[in-house]
Amino acid sequence: MENGPVAKILNFFGRKKPADVSARGGLRDMLEGFSIEVMPRTAEKIEDFRAILPKGTRVYIAHIDGTPIEDMVATAKRIAGEGFPVMPHFPARIIADKATLGDWIARYQGEAGVEQALLLAGGVDTPKGDFHSSMQLMETGLFDKAGFKRLHVAGHPEGNKDIDPDGSDRMVTEALRWKQAFSERTNADMAIATQFCFEAAPVIDWANRLRTEGIGLPVHIGVAGPAKLQTMIKFAMACGVGPSVRVLQRRAADLSKLVLPFTPEEFLTELALHRANHPDFAITNVHFFPLGGIKATTDWTAEFGASPAARAVTA
């Protein structure tokens, strides 16, 4: 038991062997430059993001179908005004046409000084306008024309059955190859921001395979912030999380843990240890989905060294 996986995790957190600090330090390093995702309605609950986030933290603003663009821009303006770089979502399938896309870009730039965006297909099955993929948004040339400095695109370590119904990741990988080529012919800095996952080994395999496929974009791995297990399972099912959901299912089978919050220590520790041994690892940053609330996530990151006093290193 002393050298088993449970003991290793306990050692990492200093609960048995405080002298073993390398893994904890790796996790602290892993959290440098983390980003976090908010929505207008969740951002309203935070009085001042400067009190809970390290300086320079990138804040993604999720655009859920039905949210007025006015609310999105107002949220971006407010958070940018508090000193944080904001990255609003541009979901292709809810954007009516090129004119609407241009209007959104102009509003974000003119009112909130936005110069970066996450481009994705979006969560609706049927496009409401002319676009159905993030590649079409990129092909308009409007982000280049507006001088956007950074574009992130979606990644799916466990595949996406909306894109690859056969369960493979053939089309998803082909799309990433296209985006890699786009990054090489434009001036925008690009990265892949992924869906949240719960199991490190498949994520490591996926990230390594990207390199063999000629995809060199840095990866910002999606991580679910601390939340009740029932909440986590609900979001995982709704968001189509793949095989790694078994981590939650195993925990749910243990009644003694059912009421405890699920936190990402083990997942991120494994990634941090792998990165420490493989400096060229594709995963460079952590992106949090605060499923249990923004404050719960930022309290957790502060516990492991990413406090408001720290300066984020965004990339």
Mean pLDDT: 85
What's the main sheet like?
Answer: 8 strands, parallel, barrel
Low-confidence stretches: 1-21
Helix content: 40-55%
Q: H/E order of the elements?
A: HHEHEHEHEHHEHEHEEHHEHEH
- Give the strand order of the largest sheet, numbering strands 1, 2, ... along the chain: 1-2-3-4-5-6-7-10
Spatial shape: globular
Secondary structure: elements and pairs:
Blueprint (H helix, E strand, L loop, with lengths): L4 H8 L9 H10 L3 E4 L1 H4 L15 E3 L7 H13 L4 E6 L6 H15 L3 E5 L13 H6 L2 H5 L3 E6 L14 H16 L3 E8 L3 H13 L6 E6 L2 E2 H10 L7 H7 L8 E2 L2 H13 L5 E7 L4 H10 L12
Parallel strand pairs: 1-2, 1-10, 2-3, 3-4, 4-5, 5-6, 6-7, 7-10
Antiparallel strand pairs: 8-9
Helix pairs in contact: 2-12, 4-5, 10-11
How would you describe this structure to a colleague?
With 315 residues, the chain is an alpha/beta fold. Helix content is 41%, strand content 16%. The chain contains 13 helices and 10 strands. It has helices at 5-12, 22-31, 40-43, 69-81, 98-112, 134-139, 142-146, 170-185, 200-212, 229-238, 246-252, 265-277, 294-303, and strands spanning 35-38, 59-61, 86-91, 116-120, 150-155, 189-196, 219-224, 227-228, 261-262, 283-289. An 8-stranded parallel barrel has the order 1-2-3-4-5-6-7-10. A two-stranded antiparallel sheet has the order 8-9. Helix 5 (98-112) links the parallel strand 3 (86-91) and strand 4. The protein is globular, with a radius of gyration of 19 Å.
